């Protein structure tokens, strides 16, 4: 039996560096660089840096 192909895109969780526990989920290309972005964190009501972490399955 052949191995299943991996998806081109992967779902990642963008976690707030303000340590609030707030996160966004997004997709990126599997072979691409790790994501980081400045986005709005409603817990602290300010724009903060969000960094990528793997989305874990339940």
Description of the molecule:
The protein has a domain at 7-32. The protein has no helices and four strands. The protein has strands spanning 9-16, 23-29, 36-41, 46-54. β3 (36-41) and β4 form a beta hairpin. It is elongated and about 50 Å long. The two termini are 28 Å apart. Keywords: Mitochondrion, Ribonucleoprotein, Ribosomal protein. It comes from Hydnomerulius pinastri MD-312.
Cα Rg: 14 Å
Sequence of strands across the biggest β-sheet: 2-1-4-3
Structure classification:
mainly beta
Helix fraction, binned, reads: under 10%
Indicate the overall shape.
elongated
**Mean pLDDT rating:** 89
Please, how many helices?
0
> SSE order in H/E notation?
EEEE
Main beta sheet strand tally, sense and closure? 4 strands, antiparallel
Uncertain parts: none
Head-to-tail CA distance between termini? 28 Å
- List how many beta strands DSSP finds: 4
Which percent range describes the beta-strand content?
A: over 45%
A few lines on this structure:
This protein has strands at 9-16, 23-29, 36-41, 46-54.
Q: Which terms summarize this structure?
A:
structural constituent of ribosome, mainly beta, ribonucleoprotein, elongated, Ribosomal_zn-bd, 58 residues, ribosomal protein, 4 strands
Task: Describe how the helices and strands are arranged.
Blueprint: E1 9-16, E2 23-29, E3 36-41, E4 46-54
Antiparallel strand pairs: 1-2, 1-4, 3-4
Keywords: Mitochondrion, Ribonucleoprotein, Ribosomal protein
GO molecular function: structural constituent of ribosome
Family: Belongs to the bacterial ribosomal protein bL33 family.
């Amino acid at each position: 039996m052949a191995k299943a192909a991996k998806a081109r895109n992967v779902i990642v969780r963008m976690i707030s560096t303000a340590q609030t526990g707030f996160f966004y989920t997004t997709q990126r290309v599997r072979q691409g660089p790790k994501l980081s972005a400045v986005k709005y964190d409603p817990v602290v009501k300010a724009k903060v840096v969000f960094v990528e972490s793997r989305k874990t399955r339940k």
